[in-house]
Sequence to fold (462 residues):
Amino acid sequence: MTQRIIDLLRNGQPNETVTVKGWVRTKREQKEFTFIEVNDGSSMAGLQVVVNQDVPGYAETMKRISTGASVEIAGTLVESPAKGQRIELRTDSIIVYGEADPETYPLQKKRHSFEFLREIAHLRSRTNTLGAVFRVRNAASAAIHQFFQERGFLWIHTPIISASDCEGAGEMFTVTGFDLNKVPLTADKQVDYSKDFFGRQAYLTVSGQLEAEIMAMAFSNVYTFGPTFRAENSNTSRHLAEFWMVEPEMAFCDLEGDMNLAEEFLKSVFQHVMNTCPEDMEFFNQRIDNSVLATADNIINNEFARVTYTEAIALLEKSGKTFEYPVEWGLDMQSEHERYLAEEYFKKPTIVTDYPAHIKAFYMRLNDDGKTVRAMDILAPKIGEIIGGSQREERLDVLEQRIQDVGLDPAPYWWYLDLRRYGTVPHAGFGLGFERLVQFMTGMGNIRDVIPFPRAPQEVEF
Ligand code: 4AD
Ligand code: MG
Fold:
């Protein structure tokens, strides 16, 4: 049976006979033998393989092997005489599945820029950095499920095609079955969606929250973790058109409970990743951002800062800094403001609560002051907003009023209003941008490099 290289590196014993399959990272030919480093993606480190001249077909095989070639190697583990690895593989036989012409294979030994690697996203996962990113991404995904499953949250699958704009921001992609060259029009020259596939306009979802609220009203605690889509034309290092979001929703929960859960959640996911991917995290600390390990330690061991929006604005006004965007009560915070608070002032994740109602979505619970809502954003150093959440408006009359105040038509939200008509309860939840979390953990500067196939304005391949 084929063994995973990570298991051999950790537990392999001298004299064990093993077979490994993977891709050649480096080949170093000596006079009488050749060193090959084979990587199968299970760990950052590859397995050092020694191929002696007496291996059948040696000369022929070595000609076919170069960086990127795929191989199967059977042999015996031996203690490595050299520094750098505990064990190595002494080869009995070697099969080349596929060559990788060194004249054209783009991933040769030298370091490539992330911009260049994005152009070859079909190959970049074979590099050290992207390999580490996707292992951390996997570990964080598993940790998220583990966290909620241990606490009895039901994992629900919210739809990707949706009829409603959860955030009310109008940043949605339309899903249509129309032949766009022959779109039916109504008498007043509007697109006639009644003739479309769904009989009305449908979209790619921006959030699973509204459906999660439905399910929380039956199962108390639920979460959804899936892709979400935003047609906002934000060409930044923190925005994608397609990103994954984790959204828990809790019945019988207020904002305090929501914040506590979010903080415990982030700590737990960081801890899990530190436990399962120590080599990858060490690599990020050494090669990408030398604050990665200190950040993880800070998250796990320190309480997050908590301030209201009103207090946060006062801190920004007192900061003595000149910001590009103005600071004034009532204005939305920009990334520079969020980063000042989390990075410079508190130096740790910062939870900002009770934002002005008019800059937040319609579903957030109105405070008694009539001006602010029970919202909370978690701001992370270097990233800015990583989580957005709130206690939801559970009072039917207040919610109806809010929907009207923000200029939305209440009719399509009839089912959302029904939840307030029948057995309404205080409830709360949040959404974590999963790629922003992976960026925060790994120190990767551009969000396009923490998702295998990024979708952003003017950017879709595969
Ligand atoms: O703050 P947002 O818009 O909140 C919601 O969608 C709520 N319905 C969540 C909830 O309460 N269930 O988005 C949540 C998070 C943000 O904090 C951010 O981390 C991430 O999603 N996010 C993006 N990540 C990458 N690219 C984008 N374009 C993003 N927009 C939001
Ligand atoms: Mg938000």
